[in-house]
Every structure is written in structure tokens, then in C-alpha cells.
Amino acid sequence: MNLEKKEYIDILNTALAGGGDYAEIFYEDYKGNLLKYDNGKFEESSYRSRKGASIRVVAIGETFFGHTNEANYENLKKIAENLSKSVKKRNPNLDIFTVQSLENQPKTNFMPFEKSFEDISIENKVDTIKKAVEYLKEYDERIKMFTIMYGDPVRKVKIINSEGKICEDVRHYPIFYVISIAMNEKGELFTGMEGNSENRGFEFFTDELIKETAKNSARQAIAQLEGEDSPAGEFTVVMSSEAGGTMIHEACGHGMEADLVLAGSAYRDKVDKEIVSKKVTVVDDGTIANKRGTLNFDDEGTSTDKTILIEKGVLKGYMHSKLTAKKFGVKPTGNGRRESYMHLPVVRMRNTLIESGEDNPEDIIKSVEKGIFVKKMGGGQVDVISGDFQFKVTEGYMIENGEITTSLRGASLVGNGLEVLRSIDMVGNDLGYAVGTCGKDGQGAPVSDAQPTIRIPKIIVGGVVKGGSK
Amino acid sequence: MKDIIQKSLEYIKSKKLKGIINVFVENEKNVSFSLGKIDELTEGEKGNAGIKVIDNEGRVATSVTNIITEQGLLEASEKCCELVKYSEPDEFNDISNQKEYELIDWAYDIDTENTTIDKIMEMAKQLEDKAKSLDDRIKFVRKSNVSSSISKLYFANTNNIFKKAHYSNASAVISLSAVEGEESSMGFGFELKQSIRLIDIDLIAKEAVDNAIGGLKAKILNSGRKDIILSPFVTAQLLSVLMTPLSGENVCKGKSFLKDKIGEKIANEKVNLIHDPMSGSAPIVSSFDNEGINTKRFSFIENGVLKTYANNIYSANALKTEPTGNAFASPTNPLPSLGSLNMHLVSNSTRNRILNSGEALYVTNAMGLHTVDPISGRFSIQISGRVVREGNLEESFRGMTMAGTVQEMLNNIDLIASDFKYIGYVSGSTTLIKDMSVGGK
Predict the structure, then answer these.
(1) Testing the interface with A: which of B32, B241, B401, B411 to mutate, by most A Cβ within 10 A?
(2) Inter-chain residue contact B439 with A68, CB threshold 8 Å
């Protein structure tokens, strides 16, 4: 979408003709390949594209929205006219302001890239999968099947708003996923899954990355195969930095998104209060070079930054979009994100992490007489208001007398985010990342999260209670 | 639309390839309220097309585009044709040759199409007001949403098959929080219907408020083996997990614990699991799937015995059987994949009888159902709800786990009520499952 500045101004002023505090045009051009190896062969090659634009008008805290997949002047002007009519109908006597000029915003570059996906042949993309196939065939004969996925979506966005800003951003999301399935002599199946992604070009797909992803996936499957059913009940849990920050993202991060604070989350009315262990500092950082959640601008045109949420146990603030920042009387933090031009921006995390502490990870394990060591976490779910959560443990082991022993299958962790942060009593001096696509309000957003090795003195582990008596 | 699609299919044919195209066009009206203010008001049209091509050795490529114009579809078709050589041959890939189909005209409701955005706004506001009026402890309404959509689906392939369908849907959903002292608890209520006239605002508000209030003052109980009663919503969620092992494609690939189990007992003999794509009471119906195969009602499980898998053209060819018409696509994912429409358990009891069947945990919310391993069937999920004694819902529990395997759960299903609730493509009713492993203190 390359309209003249005067055309953008005309569209914005048309959208604001019925009154309103803010208007913006959001344009998106998304495209990418997806290649899949499954069932012992290259099963499918796919191409996905999406293009379109939307207009949002905010009037005294209420939001009016329209979109089109043909982002030309005429269509956008028509949407703007309809929106201004809706605003006027709902609020007939609003003041009207007009946009006078637009300025292109200076570009930062937190996601430098060397090789554009468009310049890489499909043959070279296929080669990444072939390398993983070769590695997995040699790993362990009990690995009977594997699925490998290569993806390279690129999302170009342009935001033109009534604050007079034009912001452009290009996000590259290379994805490499491996699912391994191991089979034991009884024919029982065990699954391991590992995925990696960043915000950078084709140089992401290094031989080392491919090998590590394949190895971690296969190792998880074999650990489950060789493991025993997880016990159920309360245990001391050591979460390895290798588990990434899924717990901090899901069980704690969501509760500090300002829209959920307004909806009654457990973090409401607690700014400047000591709410968790002094050993815990939590940040959401959109500027870490090339991480999956990194952005130059969010999807409202706000520059990203490092947002301190909890500092040494004290809640310092929340993550904000433009809308929530206005409600709280603070500055937006660059957390307004949307899945596509058809969605409204909502408050979303970027790269969320617990900062490293001072304990040696090995000492943390040695400190546990009987407990569970969580090496890799799978997916989970959270009640974003209370912070209650459930996470699957995809690779876990018993800790007995300070030593890691038997591998476990079928374990999960269940608890409450705020209570877990209160109870953490050891924080390692390491840091490990995990990546994902966070789901909220029916929208997906690329994110990463991280944590050091931590010790949780007491948490419920979901496993099997043996026997048939109730 | 037929002409536009036809031009892309002609292009695919000119490359000596077979092809199928699904085009979805949706008109949506959507209003959300939060704390008395409009959170979102959207009115507009969107579309999505999924294209799949197959060469003469069975190589496959796909593409998706939201540009539903002659040019947009042609460009997506060209991409598909360029990519197909990178896949490997597979003799089982093919396209449908079923020309006849039943045009469903009763799944479209003109009242829903004619409902104004003002009326939808009014309903969303009513839903929020109603929920807040039910209990003083409801302090926050995150979103009270009502939406309607009119969808048109066009299917065509290079065998000159063209099928179309016209649907209406309406939904209402509310999420809110109850607060008592330092404690807060989220509640959720929703309905999805074919017509906006069938949306019951009062019922949805009550469901959400009951869930939120029920979560206050909840405790963690002791671990043990317990009888479990699943609410209709949770039953539907658990049933949706079954679709992966029932997929003929996963069976072909050896990724299902149900492989080689046709004709074998895989569940309690009280279990009858039905796929019912033309059910008149369901919010979503279809007379053909998105490979162009006509749908039909059938049993996956009959008296505990596995009768069939869900087969698309690929898995039917690989398993030397007939496709069952279960390859479904959607406006958000317009490429067909195996699924079910209106899958549900046949009832053998009533909700009242189930609640009076002894002490049990009544589960109203389950978290982590998507983490159930569909390949092995193992699961370990979080459950919350109320303890049931003598038919009474007593103290609340939360933060506990239920673990085991899907196979164990199927064997332990005992009673199934008829209070069905649809969550999209699956329907659930109150269900008693005996003797499951529950983790707590």
C-alpha cells in the first residue's frame, strides 16, 4: 500500500469526521513457504499469503473497526466514511480534530537480517529438512517416525495514525520444528517435540540449529519411552533453564497485561507493592536482538522497549497498548500487537523473562532430597485472571538425594503463578529461552520467554495414582 | 464466483495437474462490550481460499490466499503449480468424482442476515448487564460479545465438480471475574447457534456467573482415584481430542493408538460415538466435505467397538476403503484436514441420575486438554469444579490434576446424559467416568 501522504491524511480525517480521539490505518503484507516432511517423505509444499488493511477509530474509549483485503484509496475511504457514521450515531456531539501532516518515523533495527527468504531457492530450503532427516535416522533405532516442518513467513506492516506518524516494520519468522515418535517393544508410542524460531533471515537455519532441534526432539521421546509413570501429588520442583520461560509467560505474564488487569487479574492494585520473592525480577523486552518476540514498532506504531514488570519482588507496572495506557494515565509500552490486519491490537507480551540470579544450577539440584527436575516444558493453559495454570512436562526426571535419576512420563505441573513466584527460593545464574505463538482473544502472536534454573519448594505434579481403590 | 474459480482450475489443468479449490466468503457483524463501553464494533466481509494441486505421480502442493479475485486465485494457483515438484510421489493422493450433492438451504437464516448492527450491540450490552445483575461479586466483565456471520462456501475441482453452501451462524460469549476479598475467579459462558433468534442471553450470563462464583473459595483436595462427572462443555472438549487418533491419515502413518483396532472393543460397551454432519439441531452442518465427498451419519464406536476411522480420499485409498466425507476446511484454514461434524456420545441416562450416582468430582473446567498426547493417548490435565454428594453440588475444588490415558477414560465411561452443548464441531453432555486418577495434596 503506497498511497500519497495527502491520501492517508484524507482517509484519517474522514474516519475522524464523526469525532474521535484517535484513528489509524494498519496495512499488512504476509507471505511465506511451509515445507513438511512426514510419513517418510516430503509430503507437502505450501505457500501462504495474506494482504489487506484496516482502519480503527477510538472515540471516548470505544473502538470502531473495519477492514478490506483490497487496500486502495477508494476502499479505505469508504470504510472511513462508515466508521465515522457509526461513531457519530453512537456519540453525536463529539469534538472533531483533523490530522495536518504525517512524518515517517526513524527506523531502529533490533532484527537485522542477512538473507531474505525470497532470495533463497526452494531446493536450499528443502536441504534444511534433509539434514534433520539424516541426523534422526542415525540417532536411535527406537525412533520410528518423525515429522519435520520448515516455515519462513515474512510480515511487512505499515501504520499511519492520527498522531502524524508513519511507521514501517518487517518481521521475519523462520520456524523449524521436529516431532519424533519412539516405539517400545510393546508397540507403545512416545512423542518428543522441539521447535525453534527467531526474528531474522535465512541465516537462522544453521547446521547446529537443525541438529540441536532434531536431537532435543528425539531425546525427549526416548526419555519418555525409558521412563516411568510420573507420581502425583505435592513435590519440590527444579525447573531447568532449558525449560524456557513458559511458566513465567503463561502463569504470570498474562496477569500483568493491562487489559487483563482491568478485567480483574490477581496483579490489580498492587503496583509498588512487594508481591513475590525478592529473588525475582521479571521483564518484558521487545528489543533483544533477533528474538522471536522482538519488534521495532508494535502494531500501533509505538517503539518497543524493555518493560520492567517486577523488580526484586516489587510490582513496578504493567504492559500497555495505547488504549490501556490512556486508561491508566501512563505511556504505552509497545505491547499493542495483532495477528493480522483483520484483528484489533490487544496487549501482548514480546520476550518475557525472569532475570538470572546468583545460585549455581548444580547446587539447586543438589539441594533437593526428593523432587522433580523439569528439563523441558510442553504447552499449557492458564486462567489469566487467577493465574491458575497447567503445563505439560515433556521431559522430566526424579531427583533423589540431590541426584537426577529416573525419567518420567505423563507429568504435568499445576499451580498458581503468583504463588509460585512468591515461593521461589533459589534462582540460577543461567538463562534459557523457549519460543512459541501465544494465543489470546483468538489471536496468535510470536513470542519468546526465558528463565534461569529455579527451585519451587512445593507445587502439585499431575501424574498417575496407582491402584483401583477410591 | 464459479467463473473466477473455473479460470484457476483451467490454469491448473493446463499444467497437466489435478486441483481442488475451496473459497469461503464471510460477512460478519461483531460487537463487544466491556464495562459499559464498546470494546469493538466491526462490520465487514472477509474471504479465504485454499488451493491444492496433485501431479500425475501424486505429488501435492497447497496455497492459501485471502485475495478472492480472478487475479488473486490465479497467482495462488501459479504458486501451487510451481511448488508441486518439490514434494515426493504418493499414489494415494487423488480428487473426488462425486458430482451429485444435496444443496442445504435450511442452514441459512435470513433473520440472522437481516439483524442490524444496532440490534447486535443491544444484545451484547444486555449480556453484560444481565451478568452483572446476577451477583454482586461479579466485579469485572472482560468481554461481552455477540456476533453474526453469513458464510458462503464454494468447492470445485478439475473433474468439473462444483458444489456450494450457504450458512448463517450467531454466537454470544462473555468472560468475567468474580472477586471476594483477595480472591478472584474467572467465568466463561457461550452459545453458538444457526440463528440469532436461538441465542439465550440469560442462560449464557448464568453459566458464566455460576462458573466464576463456583471458583471462589475453592480448595485442593487429596490425591486418589475418584469418580468424575464432566460438564457438557468439558465432555465436548475431551471428545474433540479423539479426532486425532480416529483420523485415517494418522492411522496410515502409524500415529494412532487405534491402528489395527477396527472391530475391537476400545471402550465401555455403553459407549456409542456418532458423527452426525446433517443434524438439524447443530450450529454447523454440511452435505459435502471440502474434498467434495458427500457426508453421511455413521458410528465411530458402536457398543464399545471401533467401527471405522474418519477417512479422506488419501487415507481411504491407503487403507483400501471408501472416503467417509470427513475432510473439512474452515474460513480461517481453507485447506481440508480430517475432522468431524457434530460428533457426540449417544445418551443412556439423565443429568439428574448422574448427579445422584454417589460421591464424585463434578468438573466444570479443564485446562490443558490440548496437551493430551493424541498419539499415545496419555494426558495429565488440570481440573476444577465442585464435589457432588447425593445430587448436591457442595464445596469447590481447583488446581487439581486428572491423569491417565484416553483408552482408560473410554473404558471407564459409565453414564451419558442428553443435555448436549455444542462447541463448534463437537457436542458434549454430562458424562460420568468412573475411577480416574486425581492428583492433589
Answers:
(1) B401
(2) no
- A460 → closest Cβ in B34, B40, B220: B220
Decide: B418 and B429 in contact? Cβ < 8 Å. yes
* Chunked mean pLDDT (size 10), chain A, 470 residues: 94 97 97 94 94 96 93 96 94 92 93 96 96 96 96 97 96 97 90 95 98 96 93 93 88 93 91 96 97 96 96 97 96 97 96 97 97 90 84 93 94 90 96 92 94 95 62
Is residue B363 within 8 A of residue B388, CB to CB? The reply is: no
CB contact under 8 A, A416 and B255: no
**Sign of CA pseudo-dihedral A254, A256, A258, A263:** positive
Report CB contact under 8 Å: B88, A41: yes
All residues of chain B having their beta carbon less than 8 Å from the beta carbon of residue A188 are 376
Q: How far is B282 from chain A (nearest CA, A)?
A: 22
Q: Write down the H helix ranges in A43-185.
A: 73-90, 122-139
CB contact under 8 A, A43 and B87: yes
- Residues B153 and B24 sit within 8 Å (Cβ to Cβ): yes
| B396: enclosing H helix or E strand | strand B392-405
Interface touch B379/A410, C-beta < 8 Å: yes
CA–CA distance, A229 with B9 (Å, rounded to integer): 53
Summary count for chain B: helices (H), strands (E): 11, 20
pLDDT tens per residue across span B238-291: 999 999 999 999 999 988 999 999 999 999 999 999 999 998 788 999 999 999
Contact A232 B403 (CB under 8 A): yes
Distance (Å, rounded) from C-alpha A20 to C-alpha A194? 47
Q: Which residues of B touch A379 (CB under 8 A)?
A: 368, 370-371
- Percent of chain B surpassing pLDDT 70: 100
Q: Please tell me the distance from the alpha carbon of residue A211 to that of residue A432, in angstroms, as a whole number.
A: 18
Residue A465 cell numbers, joined:
495414582
Helix B2-14 crosses helix B70-83 at what angle (to 10 degrees)?
A: 30
CB neighbourhood size of B152 (10 A): 16
For residue A217, the one-letter residue type is: S
Burial of B136 (0-12, 13-18, 19+ CB in 10 A): exposed
